[in-house]
Specification:
By secondary structure, this protein is an alpha/beta fold. The protein folds into four domains: 13-80, no CATH class; 131-182 and 411-607, 3-Layer(aba) Sandwich (Rossmann fold), CATH 3.40.50; 187-405, Dimethylsulfoxide Reductase, domain 2; 650-763, Barwin-like endoglucanases (Beta Barrel), CATH 2.40.40. It is 36% helix and 16% strand. The protein contains 32 helices and 33 strands. A six-stranded mixed beta sheet has the order 6-5-18-17-16-7. The protein has a six-stranded mixed barrel with strand order 25-32-29-31-30-33. The protein is globular. The structure holds ligand MGD (2 copies) and molybdenum atom. The site of molybdenum atom has 4 residues, from loops.
Length: 773
């Protein structure tokens, strides 16, 4: 176990990528003791014959580079390919109550889980159990539980095949309680885009990046979270394409990038500047900022029209393809610059600059991430990006479109094949026909609803297909308390995490193969399929020897649970045949979604996979109006409660470091932000620090500034000066999750508003809680 050796805060002068990235990969490869094997595996990462990276969802080009991976993809592979094992001997040494005191880092660093485990009340330990007993008992428990009180959660990594089986299992059992990690992530996209353009996903492909001549970048940290995209940005920059960025922080990857795969850049120490305009918007200020750009564009358009020059908005497109333009135009023109400047924290001149560049472009792409979706107005933020694009006809033509950057590698695909709590999004009639049953038609529980149900006792069972639910959700303390009262918890996982320790009365921990591992079944070695951020479906085949002989594939685990739980009757899928040959599951997926997955098995073999049809790409709008819709923003004020709060409060955004994948913490450095050796920091503007009387390094306790009778506190953070807009501060996820009230989420999508938590700070008497490595 590693203790943070030194703690320092030094502005990072290097580019994203570069030698720092090579060094960082080398460190993690040697620490995980997996140098040779993992290095071999990396060669096949994201390549035709190999496996799809387990890290982010950015597409791989059909003709990959020699090494089609990045710093963080390599870390994710090393983390999964580690030589360390959390085996029976490990669990014999440690009670769960002891493990609960370990950090996220230390838990996962224990290594790969090796055999099925059941919690033993008497010894408070996870003890080995054989697979057959585990499945029989899980089945018996589920049969006793009201399906409406059981939850089938999925983190976004499992393949399309496993996900399809999992969702079908839940529905055959009798519930639509199929929340997934996207409920905390891009659900604002899945709700906002269908209203605006009739599809729940982005409209661009990698080709569009080669044709675009203007990129907008809102609230996505490309250098840490989708580094392979830097290649696409770098080549766009080389063609002279402007990149206009909106982010409260000056993220290194958005400023400069040195391509670790370019010998010239590496040897010469040169790098490509990425953003041509960098707007440090206030957190929560994007709707206002985009309104400002739209207003500036519309004003300039009127001037052009009156002067008889070429129009700046695409009037032909707007007339033929859209609805609601008049109301939107009026709202934008009537919007007061003072309000826009106050809410966005940006000047009118800066926004007019952005509008000017946009007005000169022929084809623009709007890229965004959690900085837009994890807000009270998250859905509106997404729709504002679309409004901006629609003004110049930038959807449904080459080089243009909207590009939500998804998180988990198959999170988008899970939705495509039925993992959703929303019955209207699943092809229930088709499922009813194929499997001769009456699927549940009522709305299931999303992540926030599940938390509510865990707290109020109405949820009784939780099955987790990957993920770290308890740690990733808001209102952590109340959820943990409620969690211990669940009757049944079953976690299917590769590595140990906190959600496995806070367990129900009957609790199983089921270890599965990782995606980098060979998956041998009755019909031979299997490949699986996943869908990336551009709706491209491609295959993945493991290349490593499994971490333990006892691991089962996720598909096999789901099949066995289904067999143990569901009654045998006509129309039941042949779970054994499916788990023995994933090609048969792909046939079932094709039968369920014939348009999306035509000739699935055959096309999966094509180099680069295939793209699902996305109607908005062809200007076919599957909205009720049959048109693309402009959406008038409800408000530019992100936090409706803000005005009633007294001065001194701050907006806290929760961040990912460059050394983590969600709740998986690889280490305590955030190289690009110059933070070394700790995650227990609070990033603050120097002026705010002065005003509140804090000096660099002062220990503080952070509490949520809402008046709902619940006290939420995160103690022991150290104040750190950072280039961040006034009134905003930053802390790390998941350490700061106890501060997010459950009700503090986006309208409609219910994505927890993790990027603007109202907080107050209090000095602490000299204590700074260091990580326990
Ligand atoms: N290495 C690595 N890769 C990952 C992940 C990981 O943890 N590690 N996580 C995966 C997952 S599940 C996801 S969802 C994605 C997440 O990837 P991102 O979408 O990049 O999410 P975050 O890192 O949370 O931060 C987003 C950015 O938003 C900025 N921001 C915060 N508030 C605002 C705001 O109000 N407006 C604007 N414009 N910007 C704001 C922050 O400064 C930050 O740069 O990455 C995926 N890939
Ligand atoms: N405050 C705050 N909270 C947030 C966010 C934020 O920005 N701020 N981001 C939100 C977002 S975008 C997301 S997506 C969620 C993430 O929430 P989750 O997806 O639930 O969490 P992860 O940390 O990705 O899950 C990590 C665990 O997955 C398991 N795992 C890894 N690989 C595999 C595999 O191949 N198979 C199986 N079965 N298990 C595997 C390992 O046991 C590992 O410990 O968190 C959300 N929570
Ligand atoms: Mo995510």
């Amino acid at each position: 176990m590693k203790k943070p050796e030194k703690v320092s805060f030094e502005p990072y002068a290097g580019p994203a990528g570069g030698w720092g990235s090579t060094q960082s990969v080398r460190e993690i490869l040697s620490r995980e003791g997996a140098v040779a094997g993992t290095a071999m595996a990396l060669v096949r990462q994201n390549r035709e014959s190999g496996f799809a990276c387990v890290s982010c969802a950015w597409p791989k080009p059909a003709k990959g580079h020699l090494f089609e991976f990045c710093e963080n993809g390599a870390k994710a592979t090393a983390w999964e390919g580690t030589d360390r094992r959390a085996d029976a001997a490990f669990f014999a040494r440690h009670r769960l109550s002891e493990l609960e005191t370990w950090s996220d880092y230390a838990l996962e660093e224990a290594g790969r889980l090796t055999e099925p485990l059941r919690w033993d009340v008497a010894s408070d330990r996870y003890l080995p159990v054989d697979w057959a007993t585990a499945f029989a008992e899980i089945g018996a428990e589920l049969k006793q539980i009201d399906p409406k009180a059981a939850v089938f959660y999925a983190s976004g990594r499992a393949s399309l095949e496993t996900s399809y089986m999992y969702a079908l299992f839940a529905r055959l059992y009798g519930t639509n309680n199929l929340p997934d990690s996207s409920n905390m992530c891009h659900e604002s996209t899945s709700v906002g885009l269908p209203k605006s353009i009739g599809v729940p996903v982005g409209t661009v492909t990698l080709d569009d990046f080669e044709k675009t001549d203007c990129l907008f970048f809102f609230g996505q940290n490309v250098g840490s979270n989708s580094p392979r995209m830097l290649h696409d940005l770098q080549s766009a920059r080389k063609r002279g394409v402007p990149i206009i960025t909106f982010n409260p922080l000056r993220e290194r990857g958005l400023e400069r990038f040195a391509n670790p795969q370019s010998p010239l850049q590496m040897l010469s120490g040169s790098s490509t500047p990425i953003s041509t305009q960098y707007h440090t918007v206030k957190t929560g200020g994007d709707s206002a900022a985009i309104m400002g750009i739209c207003k500036a564009l519309l004003v300039a358009d009127r001037q052009a029209m009156f002067a008889g020059r070429e129009r700046l908005i695409d009037t032909a497109f707007i007339t033929e393809h859209t609805q609601g333009f008049g109301a939107f135009e009026l709202a934008a023109l009537n919007c007061d610059w003072q309000d826009i400047e106050r809410e966005s924290g940006l000047s009118r001149a800066a926004l007019e600059d952005a509008a000017r560049v946009y007005g000169q472009s022929k084809a623009a792409i709007g890229i965004y991430g959690m900085g837009l979706t994890q807000h009270r107005l998250g859905v509106q933020n997404v729709q504002m990006v679309v409004n901006l694009l629609l003004l110049r006809g930038n959807i449904g033509r080459p080089g243009a479109g909207v590009c939500p950057v998804r998180g988990h590698s198959n999170v988008q695909g899970q939705r495509t094949v039925g993992i959703t709590e929303k019955p209207e999004l699943a092809p229930l009639d088709r499922l009813a026909e194929l499997y001769q049953f009456d699927p549940p038609r009522d709305k299931g529980l999303c992540t926030v609803d599940v938390c509510k149900g865990v707290i109020d006792g109405s949820v009784h069972a939780f099955i987790g297909l990957g993920g770290n639910f308890v740690r990733a959700v808001p209102e952590t303390e109340a959820v943990e308390r409620g969690w211990r009262k669940l009757r049944l918890t079953v976690q299917i996982a590769t590595k140990l995490n906190r959600s496995h320790l806070i367990h129900g009365e009957v609790s199983y921990l089921l270890p599965c193969l990782g995606r980098i591992e060979r998956d041998h079944q009755a019909s031979g070695e299997q490949r699986v399929s996943i869908e990336d951020s551009t709706s491209c479906v491609h295959s993945s085949r493991g290349v490593r020897k499994p971490a333990s002989e006892q691991l089962l594939s996720e598909a096999r685990i789901v099949a066995e649970m289904a067999k143990a739980t569901l009654p045998l009757r006509a129309g039941t899928p042949d779970w054994d045949a499916w788990a023995g040959d994933y090609a048969q599951v792909r046939d079932a997926i094709e039968a369920t979604y014939p348009e999306q997955f035509r000739d699935f098995n055959q096309r999966l073999g094509q180099p680069g996979g295939f793209h699902r049809p996305i109607p908005a790409r062809h200007r076919i709008w599957k909205t009720p109006s049959g048109k693309a819709n402009f959406a008038v923003p409800k408000s530019l004020v992100e936090d409706p409660d803000a005005p009633v709060r007294a001065a001194g409060g701050l907006r806290l955004m929760t961040l990912r470091s460059n050394d983590q994948f969600n709740t998986t913490v690889y280490g305590f450095d955030d190289r690009f932000r110059g933070i070394v050796g700790t995650r227990r920091v609070l990033l603050m503007n120097a002026e705010d620090m002065k005003q509140q009387g804090f000096a660099e390094g002062d220990p503080v306790r952070v509490s949520t500034d809402v008046d709902d009778g619940i006290i939420r506190v995160v103690p022991g953070l150290r104040v750190t000066t950072y280039d961040i807009p006034r009134g905003c501060c930053g802390g790390y996820y998941p350490e700061c999750n106890p501060l997010i009230p459950l009700w503090h989420h986006a309208d409609e999508s219910k994505v927890p508003a993790a990027k603007w938590i109202p907080v107050r700070l209090q000095r602490e008497a000299g204590v700074w809680i260091a990580e326990v490595g």
